[in-house]
Design brief:
eight-stranded antiparallel β-barrel; mainly beta; single chain; 191 residues
Length: 191
């Protein structure tokens, strides 16, 4: 009489392990993750910069179509290729890195297109203020890394933020745009 319970219990355990196998935790790979920004310069050209130091984590469940992400960026690691411009961006007029050494993107709303992440919605905390931010995927994939022998997931994500919502008003009176184009290239390694 106990024999029918054993296969049923085994099926429950197998089902539970299959479901939990879909959910995974990943660590941001800083060598394949870049946070860059673009902003117009007097309607003539585009200023670009990136942040060289960042860390974070991703939780992804492709079967349930859910996820979480957190990326923390060291704002003092800003790099434009020009030291004087970097110093100005780090100043209190813009990123104020002495007072606010990090910015953070945290999201827990993922939109999928099939089995691929299409959009991530969360918040960006910058200069002590937190506002909603949505990043749309222009590319997303997961693959088995042949060197690490582990799964890696990632993609290219883009969004636009209004810097004045964070109190970053430098140059607005001169005609600098308030909107900043944010591009995040991210890869994360399954833990």
């Amino acid at each position: 009489m106990r024999l029918p319970l054993i296969p049923a219990a085994a099926a429950v355990v197998l089902l539970a392990s299959t479901v939990s196998a879909q959910a995974a935790s990943y660590a941001i790979d800083p060598t394949h993750t870049y946070v860059t920004f673009e902003i117009g310069h007097f309607g003539t050209s585009t200023n670009r910069g990136r942040f060289d130091k960042k860390e974070g984590s991703v939780e992804l469940d492709r079967a349930a179509k859910t996820g979480k992400v957190e990326i923390v960026v060291d704002t003092s690691s800003i790099s434009t290729g020009f030291a004087m411009f970097n110093k100005h961006l780090q100043s209190a007029e813009l990123f104020d890195v002495e007072k606010f050494p990090t910015m953070k993107f945290a999201a827990d709303k993922f939109v999928f297109n099939g089995d691929k992440v299409a959009e991530v919605t969360g918040t960006l905390t910058l200069l002590g203020k937190t506002n909603p931010l949505t990043l749309k995927a222009t590319n997303f994939n997961c693959y088995e890394n042949p060197m690490l022998k582990r799964e890696v997931c990632g993609g290219d994500f883009e969004g636009t933020l209004d810097r004045t919502q964070y109190g970053m008003n430098y140059g607005i009176d001169w005609g600098f745009p308030k909107n900043v184009h944010l591009v995040v290239q991210v890869e994360a390694i399954k833990q």
